[in-house]
Amino acid sequence: MAIVTPIEAPPGGRRQLGLANPATREPIGKIEVQNAHDVASALKAARQAQPEWAARSVNERARYLTRAVQTLIERQDEFIDVLLRESGKPRTEILMMEIYSACDVLTYYAKHAVGMLRSEKRPLHGFMRLLKKLRIEYRPLGVIGVISPWNGPFILSLSPTIQALLAGNAVLLKPSEVTPYSGKLVGDLLEAVALPDGLLTVLMGDGETGEAVVGAGVDKISFTGSVKTGRSVAESCARQLIPCTLELGGKDPMIVCEDANLDNAAGGAIVGAFLNSGHVCCGTERVYVVDEVADEFTQKVLERVARLRQGNRGEFDVGAIFWDRQLEIIEAHVADAVAKGAKLLAGGRRNPGFDGLFFEPTVLADVNHDMLVMQEETFGPVLPIMRVSDQNEAVRLANQTPYGLGATVWTRDGRGGIELARRIDSGSVCINDMAVTYGVLEAPFGGLKSSGIGQVHGPNALRDFTHPKPILIDRFGGRATAGLYPYSFKNEARIQQLIRILYRSPLGRWLS
Ligand code: NAD
Predict the structure, then answer these.
(1) Bridge pairing between strands 27-32 and 16-20
(2) Measuring from atom 3 of ligand 1, which residue has the nearest CA?
(3) pLDDT digits (tens, 9 = 90+) for 460-495
(4) What's the 3-state SS for 194-263?
(5) 322-350 pLDDT per residue, tens
(6) 101-117 and 58-74 helices, crossing angle to 10°
(7) What is the percentage of the chain residues whose pLDDT exceeds 70?
């Protein structure tokens, strides 16, 4: 049984998708796939609502988010139930990754938005400082299309949406068809705090709806999802000359050095690989461990894996695979590795104890770069461990995939760890932790190579949903430019003299 089952459109009606709980296979409901016509109506409403919203102060916009935090806390059990039904992940993971993160993101941006979006007076250099004044205004772009994936279905829909809104934009949000009800919670939350009508529309549907949002005539796309879809989104944005931010997949390496604390490294490896059933964009997808500590590290990993409890009710550590199609990819990667000589140290199959979509936490050894599991995103509870002769080989192999999202380094050598981190071709690196950069809102998070374009969070997070508009004011009412003509040989000689005085001496540098 599939989690997402296409249902033929009734005559004159819309296509539907049937949804079932991945942990129990119980039906959840059906959604209608919204089409280009629905998207166009939502865009019209957004265009009408946005100017009045943009005219409000940032503080006023932020107050909606502050109220949303209180609503979320009051209604968290209702939200958790929706997330549990669609994802089948442990309640602890929903609390940490969805509810706590949502409160953190809402509170942080509500508090800092005024500072991030405040108009700036920027001092000028050289002679310009005598002649002009510069202001930068952060002008909203208009309507932002937010397209989100299924692995963090609430937080990955909420975070870009509230950033775009705070910056003065309207939003069309298209959550994943695998977890549409969790994405719709964003709309429910902001409706509960009476966000003005039309400012946010949640559009339900699959790729057809997503494509309609991208092509509708919005002013920017904020996309989180796979490399394949990201590429087609980027192509469409390029044709329309609109900006896009692409947060795409990864194949994050973990490097375990000879001096690492092996207990912590083993604990970090299993959290990195099995948290959220392995559906973490910056999760641990492959481990390179230096030969002299490889046996001990692997043993410690296996001891911890043996203690993990898989389940769908009560207390458990690892939940279901969220999506049937992902389960097929995970199985294919493990089968390919085993066929090419990898050794299964744990798991490696669907868990026969459950009806739902469960794959046992899996550890592979004797892996190499000819295997899919070391080259393509597995996005499941699979931990391949590869022995390497030294740190140089680890870095060389870590850089040998088309991805570059995150990476982790485990070492007791503070300086050496930073040096190693610098050499890895990735958007971010964590030293002695699993990849938690996404949750650190001060850190710009995004991918290199095929893992994406642009960054979320960091000091420019909100500004990336605006056009930074310079307003240049002449201190003398435009007298200098107005008196420019007629050109003369005498003036040319003066200009040449000035260039010599400035740039043949330290004066030019001093004024710059
Ligand atoms: P996906 O690309 O299949 O779908 C993402 C979204 O795009 C969904 O809402 C989908 O309906 C929509 N979509 C599909 N076709 C479209 C089209 N032609 N035009 C516009 N929209 C379209 O990805 P997924 O399977 O939902 O998500 C998993 C992927 O997301 C993984 O690769 C994961 O690493 C990545 N991800 C990245 C980050 C990050 O921050 N870098 C975070 C979470 C997930």
Answers:
(1) antiparallel
(2) 226
(3) 989 999 999 999 999 999 998 999 999 999 999 999
(4) CCCCCCEEECCCCHHHHHHHHHCCCCEEEEECCHHHHHHHHHHHHHHCCCEEEECCCCCEEEECCCCCHH
(5) 999 999 999 999 999 999 999 999 999 99
(6) 170
(7) 100
Which residue ranges form the domains of the chain, and what is each CATH number?
36-248+459-466 (3.40.605.10), 253-441 (3.40.309.10), 484-511 (no CATH)
CB 150 within 8 A of CB 324: no
Q: What is the DSSP letter of 367?
A: -
Paired residues of 365 in beta bridges:
343
Cα separations in angstroms, 369 against 12, 93, 233, 258, 303: 50, 31, 29, 22, 26
CA gap 147, 227 in Å, rounded: 13
Q: Is 376 in the pocket of ligand 1 (CB under 6 A)?
A: no
> For residues 364 and 301, what is the distance between their CA atoms, to the nearest angstrom?
11
Query: 3-class DSSP state for residue 160?
Result: helix
Computed from CA positions of residues 128, 131, 137, 141, in that sequence, does the dihedral angle turn out positive or negative? negative
Half-sphere exposure (Cβ direction) of 468: Cα atoms closer than 13 Å: 15
With a 6 A CB cut-off, is 249 part of the ligand 1 pocket?
yes
Mean pLDDT of the chain: 96
Active-site pick, 281, 376, 377, 430: 281
Angle (CA) 444 449 455, round 5°: 20
Would you tell me how many other CB atoms lie within 10 Å of the CB of residue 141?
21
Task: Tell me, in angstroms, the distance from the centre of ligand 1 to residue 391's CA.
Answer: 33
297 sits in the region (left: phi over 0; alpha: psi -120 to 50; else beta) called alpha
* pLDDT tens by residue, 143-190: 999 999 999 999 999 999 999 999 999 999 999 999 999 999 999 999
Q: How far apart are CA 168 and CA 170, in angstroms?
A: 7
Residue type present at position 237: C
| Residue carrying the six token digits 């409160």 | 103
Any ligand 1 atom below 6 A from CB of 151 = yes
Q: Are 214 and 203 in contact (CB under 8 A)?
A: no
3-state secondary structure 306-321: HCCCECCCCCCCECCC
141 C-alpha to center of ligand 1: Å?
23
Residue of 157, 204, 221, 226 best suited for mutating to test ligand 1, as the one with most atoms within 8 Å of CB: 226
